[in-house]
Amino acid sequence: MTAVNGFVQVGHGPCKVLVLSGWFGSSADWKALEPALDVDSFTYVFFDYRGYGQSLERDGAFTFAEVASDVLALADNLDWQRFSLIGHSMGGMAMQRVLLAAPHRIERMAGISAVPACGSRMDAARLAGFGATVNDVTKRAGIIAFSTGNRLTPRWSAHLANQSVRLSTREAFAGYLPEWATRDFSAELIGSAAAQVPVKLFIGEHDPTLTADLMNRTWLAWYPHATLETLANAGHYPMFEVPVALATKLEDWLKQTT
What we know:
Layout: E1 7-11, E2 15-20, E3 42-47, H1 64-77, E4 83-88, H2 90-101, E5 106-112, H3 124-131, H4 137-147, H5 154-166, H6 170-181, H7 186-189, E6 199-204, H8 212-217, H9 219-222, E7 226-231, H10 238-241, H11 243-254
Parallel strand pairs: 2-3, 2-4, 4-5, 5-6, 6-7
Antiparallel strand pairs: 1-3
Helix pairs in contact: 1-2, 4-5
């Protein structure tokens, strides 16, 4: 049997959902949502990239093309012919590579503070700043604090930063950075049949980067059936900041049939 990435499964329902985390995250990010999830209607698989979480020891090229291949291999292993995708931050860009690889298998997508297919378009100076976090947990905490509007306790930002060090290898963390920071595959998506998939985007009202303006210029311009909702009292990490509200809104969207 082909080796597959590690994951955490929650639920046993007929609606299949695969969830991709952000650069600082892992399958552990979604724990706070579990008490609010409808486990009879949904089966959730919280996927771990190579070098992260349940896949910590799995080496690789650390590219989104590889992620797409790994996601589809896992779906095959689970005997999922069709399923929906949820992607947070970096995971929003990664799930679009899955969509492009197998558009006929994706029912709908939900992006949470989701990086668009054009990436973050970082210049060299900003890329170097993010690259410095690979070996500096304090800088990781600083980015987390900024991305949540500098309004939450520093202890929480430090906790999330330390968890990212513990649950990802430096090689994987560094490898995925240029994938979401500088790559751009939007030309493959614009006007394609894949872009017809229904998409719901969620952004936090305090997220300084993944804003409504950015979503309107990218996701909503490229996906004809995309809609946008702003989550109150949240920044870049709604799964931690407003988990029950996020779970409720996600399932309301995923249960729709049109």
